[in-house]
Design a protein that fits this description.
Elements: H1 5-12, H2 15-18, H3 22-41, E1 45-46, E2 49-53, E3 58-66, E4 78-87, H4 89-93, E5 101-109, E6 112-116, H5 124-135, E7 159-167, E8 170-174, E9 182-186, E10 190-195, H6 203-250
Parallel strand pairs: 5-7, 6-8
Antiparallel strand pairs: 1-3, 2-3, 3-4, 4-5, 4-6, 7-10, 8-9
Helix pairs in contact: 1-3, 1-6, 5-6
């Protein structure tokens, strides 16, 4: 989407960043979100603004856009006005003991997502998810709950996210290349919990995991819609055929 990887990385990257002026840190993080987001998704990622307030345990990312892959429309695959992070300040003090930094909640309010199918049945979101699978770091800690906390250190602690919420996703499912039309709906809130397990994940893995989970949840909903639409279309064709047979019989 996205996006969160370097914001999270810098939160845990070490004391040096914490002493930078706010403006410099915000600009640096915005640039790195774009660089790392593009690396994971293989698509251009842009960010308008980042505002970090570590002393208040809060951070905000605004105006994030994830471009559509080549071969699809120019509309962004995923875009949002604002992401907010609620950082557990008490967890920062426990980092020296090898404990993970805890993000109490990451909330994405009313993002817009486009799921676009091509003539072969492939989709933009699946292409992006495939890219993330290729590029996300692989280790024994990737699986939730299997992280070895001993691999984390005070200088490079793991991160755990208690709640990851996508609220009011405005979803568009474009089936025009499959002979249908574009369908729109607002998804019920998507609430993912305990990402990283009790021991957390390294920042470079967590960022990719968050992007992957967000897009996977949206993709799952889009596939359900596609299946329902196809089933309805088949029912309509069956009704038309039955009606024609009845008409031929009566005539």
């Amino acid at each position: 989407m996205k996006k969160l990887i370097i914001l999270l990385a810098l939160i845990i990257a070490g004391g040096a960043f914490w002493f930078l002026s706010s403006d410099k840190l915000n600009v640096f993080i915005a640039e790195q979100i774009e660089v790392q987001g593009s690396k994971f998704t293989e698509q251009r990622v842009t960010v308008e603004k980042v505002d970090i307030q570590l002393l208040h345990g809060a951070s905000t990312i605004k105006g994030l856009r994830l471009n559509n892959p080549k071969g699809y429309s120019s509309t962004p695959a995923f875009s949002l006005d604002e992401i907010t992070l609620d950082i557990n300040l008490a967890s920062l003090a426990a980092v020296k003991d090898g404990k993970p930094i805890v993000i109490d909640a990451i909330v994405i309010n009313e993002p817009e997502a486009l799921v676009e199918f091509n003539a072969k049945g492939g989709s933009n979101i699946q292409d992006i998810l495939d890219a993330i699978d290729r590029n996300i770091p692989k280790s024994s800690s990737t699986k939730e709950g299997n992280t070895d906390s001993a691999s984390a250190s005070a200088a490079n602690p793991n991160i755990r996210v208690k709640q990851f919420i996508l609220a009011g996703v405005a979803l568009r499912v474009d089936l025009t290349k499959l002979g249908n039309t574009t369908h729109k709906k607002t998804l019920t809130d998507i609430n993912l919990t305990n990402i990283g397990g009790e021991a957390g994940l390294p920042a470079n893995e967590l960022g990719g995991e968050l992007i992957k989970r967000a897009l996977s949840a949206i993709w799952k909903s889009a596939k359900k819609d596609q299946q329902r639409i196809v089933e309805d279309k088949l029912k309509d064709k069956a009704k038309e055929k039955a009606s024609k047979l009845l008409s031929d019989f009566l005539n």
